[in-house]
Amino acid sequence: MERTKVTEEELEQIKKFIEEIRFGSVTVIVQDSKIVQIEKHEKVRMNSRIGF
């Protein structure tokens, strides 16, 4: 099986997503040894107080 190289553009996009989020995940979807999708899932933590 031939190895596919990850491009600089793909690496930069993954790096950008990681640097942009405080809480969450970055998922890389691969098909046939190629990155076909990069997903960013960000969670926003709400400050929950009892008795405002």
Written as H for each helix and E for each strand, in order along the chain, the element string is HEE
- What about the largest sheet? 2 strands, antiparallel
Order of adjacent strands in the largest pleated sheet: 1-2
Name the beta content range: 25-35%
Helix-strand category: alpha+beta
Helical element count? Answer: 1
Report on this structure.
By secondary structure, the chain is of the alpha+beta class. The chain has one helix and two strands. A hairpin with a 2-residue loop joins strand 1 and strand 2 (34-42). The longest helix has 13 residues, at 8-20.
Keywords:
about 50 residues, about 25% helix, two-stranded antiparallel ribbon, alpha+beta
Structure described in brief:
The protein is α+β, with helices and mostly antiparallel strands and 52 residues long.
SSE layout and pairing:
Blueprint: H1 8-20, E1 24-31, E2 34-42
Antiparallel strand pairs: 1-2
